[in-house]
Amino acid sequence: MKQEQIENWTCEDSAELYGIRNWGAGYFNLNQSGEITVEVKNDAGELHAVSLLDIAHGATERGLGMPLLVRFENLLDAQIGRINNSFRSAIESSGYNNVFRGVFPIKVNQQCQVIEEIARAGRQFGHGLEAGSKAELIAALSILDNTDALIVCNGYKDEEFINLGLQAQRLGVQVFFVVETPSEVDTIIHCAQREQVEPNIGVRIKLASKVGGYWNATSGDRSIFGLGSNDLIAMVDKLRDQNMLHCLKLLHYHLGSQVPNIRDIRTGVLEACRYYADLVEEGAAMGYLDLGGGLAVDYDGSKTNYTHSKNYSLDEYCVDVVEAIMGTLDSEGVEHPVIITESGRATVAYSSVLLFNILDTTSFEPIELEEDSIGEDTHPMLKNLQDALQSVTPKNLQESYNDGLYYRDEIRALYLHGQVSLRDRALAENLFLQCAQRIRKLLNEVDQVPVDLQALPEVLSDIYYANVSVFQSLPDIWAIDQLFPLVPVHRLDEAPTRSAIIADITCDCDGKIDRFIDRQDVRKTLPLHPLKDGEEYILGTFLVGAYQETLGDLHNLFGDTNVVSVRIDDDGQVDYSREIHGDSIADVLSYVEYSPQDLFERFRKLAERAVKEKRITAQQRKDILHTYTASMSGYTYFEK
Ligand SMILES: *Cc1c(COP(=O)(O)O)cnc(C)c1O
């Protein structure tokens, strides 16, 4: 970065650099002090902005230190509102003759607080839940106390699952069973006849339409779930035989999650509507069309059909869906169905932010050399290396780099054979770093960067050590190369003069973040600020509300982080409405079947033996056991 650029840096430059307003969906912004804010409107239409740094400090003072997951109840409410209102206005403006009934798929964030908040905020819209297992159905039945809302049951269902759903129908709950495999319909017929309850049957179909994006394996002929056209006909015939065709009410499909291209969404709707119209023709009752999930989140803010983005707005999605349904069904003279979507990712992604602090950094900067460090008796190879360093110009970058590398490697070989000292080797490494850094700085001045040197900025970038476990808190980064916006939550009025990758606290070589969002491409390094003595440096990972919280795997026994739910009230005050302390070390040990009491007892015996052998005093034993117990009940992450 040029000196002038550093000195004139403003918050606006940070907003642009990190794309905050592009991915922030109007929820995230930054204030005059260079801090990221969450912005919410109250019912009176007043905008309140709250600094994430203030929330982090407030939580730390309450004993919930970093790493900390912050859930914004307002953002969850707002997103439920946006989805429902967008469908409402699309339905109104196009004259669609039925309503929208969203359901939230519990698997996307199963946390009780989240599901409760969705049920609460969704009440006024009749927003329901999707359950993919018995456990999820049990949670849904208790939390969703609203008979306007639907419960859609997907996944493999045994008799117990179906019986529970059927009996709940007697209570007035609207439960739908979606048939996912040909054999399931027999179980449903059997249970319904025994229970004497008319089931609401749905059917999941396999669409031939293939979609783009990461999750495209869920669509097309080979998708695991859903019925093909032959199975569908067999099912219709079976229901007709049993006089139950009027129970077949819903058509369901799911294209896969995070569908970046609106064209794929539209193609899916069109194909599904063909099936829908034919089922009506066959005599099924129908009335509900369930489009599944797939509504994407624009993680990089690029508004493109790139995997981590989407080339459509929520309004466009709703209008396209409504118009595609009308376009197909009107020409067949079929009545408009209730539109159901199972948007998970788009509902919850915005509401959670993971905050963590940086513990330390490593930079690949050379150290200042003494004047006389290369003298008469220094090995000639080192002098060659110094010559290579001194001859770097914009015209010979590649050549100088090759020379530097060659001499450095020669010196490494000499060291291996005992022909240069450790000090000479260290000197050589330092000279090479100087050479490489000088070349890197000159890369900006040449028109065409030689291919071999293109990776130099990454190779020389800093490593920032973060107090977080990627495996536990951001599993998709590791598992599927998911990109999330990652931004310092403060100091945005200062130029970020360092380029870095992030290493997590697990010290596993996969526990790193080295791909970052960019509007054109994927960044290999993230611009960050140099650490200041005595001041925390806090980064936020945004849009992590979907799929991240429950997939964590206790890698190195790092457990759940601290969590706070906050609500920004009508006056703009922050209400810490709920808090959950992260796992203690005793918690994570017991997850993998250790008994903390037993461990203590064994350690006590070890200490007692040391007393007997006079290695420690009884008083020292007490201190050691105290340290052991205190660690056992402490946080699994780095504590200050
Ligand atoms: C996972 C899943 C969803 C949620 O998809 P999103 O893309 O997160 O909205 C919806 N329906 C079914 C059947 C699913 O398996």
UniProtKB/TrEMBL annotation:
Alphabetical list of Gene3D superfamilies matching this protein: 1.10.287.3440, 1.20.58.930, Alanine racemase (3.20.20.10), Lyase, Ornithine Decarboxylase, Chain A, domain 1 (2.40.37.10)
GO terms under biological process: L-arginine catabolic process; spermidine biosynthetic process
Source species, domain of life: Bacteria
Record domain Orn/DAP/Arg decarboxylase 2 N-terminal: where: 101-349
E.C. number(s) listed in UniProt: 4.1.1.19
Protein purpose: Catalyzes the biosynthesis of agmatine from arginine.
Family membership: Belongs to the Orn/Lys/Arg decarboxylase class-II family. SpeA subfamily.
Name of protein: Arginine decarboxylase
UniProt source species: Microbulbifer hydrolyticus
